[in-house]
Amino acid sequence: MTFSLVARCPETGMFGIAISSSSPAVAARCSHARAGVGAVASQNVTDPALGPLALDLMAGGLSAADAVAEVRRRGRFIEYRQVLAVDRNGMTAIHSGPNSLGIWTQAQSENVASGGNLLANDGVPQALVEGYLAASGHIGDRLIAAMRAGLAAGGEAGPVHSAGMMIVDKVSWPVADLRCDWTEACPIEAVARLWEIYKPQLDAYVQRALDPRAAPSYGVPGDE
């Protein structure tokens, strides 16, 4: 009931994940990323604990492939899980258990990996990867382009209702964590609209945390 993409920007070192599902609040359960370490999607009959586990393993020095192999060894009911990972070197790895739902498949390249289940067709993850690689600009722009490409290729077998995008960079918290937890319209476009609003302010929000004295004005009533 989900399709997703994990990615690393080789120019900036940023990591990102974008995800969409017919289930509510998919990004709250399935999206995991850590600056300087990697990004992980844990989906399909989801065990959210697998995301932090994979990130801890990569933080300890394991590659994405070795981390995913260890997740497979430690995880419970791993035959039901999909886990996608990209590490600090841009290497990717994917586990898709044989009990993944419906049409499920995966695709990967350097710096980017995609997987999905209950898909409209088995070409959706490859469309996400190609959409990401064909796009340019900020990693957030490329993640949105990838999700739109996946949706255009068929997306889920049924309508999607939630989506999210997370980006990490240098600091210990996500520099962007945008979500649409439920809509009857297109949640990917809802997140895309949020990104258009948030992108020009991203650096300012980081600066406000690091040193509010150097931060720009909030620009809201009462902040004179």
Residues in β-strands, percent: 25-35%
Structural class: alpha+beta
Helix/strand order, N-terminal first: EEHEEHHEEEEHHEEHH
Instruction: Tell me how many strands there are.
Output: 10
Please describe the biggest sheet, giving its number of strands, its sense, and whether it closes into a barrel.
6 strands, antiparallel
Average of per-residue pLDDT values: 96
Helical run tally: 7
Q: At the first level of CATH, what is the class?
A: Alpha Beta
Question: Architecture, according to CATH?
Answer: 4-Layer Sandwich
The CATH topology = Glutamine Phosphoribosylpyrophosphate, subunit 1, domain 1
Look at the structure and name the CATH superfamily: Aminohydrolase, N-terminal nucleophile (Ntn) domain
Low-confidence stretches: none
User: What count of domains describes the coordinates?
Assistant: 1
For the largest sheet, list the strands in their spatial order.
7-8-1-2-9-10
Brief overview, please?
The strands form two sheets. A six-stranded antiparallel beta sheet has the order 7-8-1-2-9-10. Strands 3-4-5-6 form a four-stranded antiparallel beta sheet.
Give the tags:
224 residues, alpha+beta, Glutamine Phosphoribosylpyrophosphate, subunit 1, domain 1, six-stranded antiparallel β-sheet, four-stranded antiparallel β-sheet, 7 helices
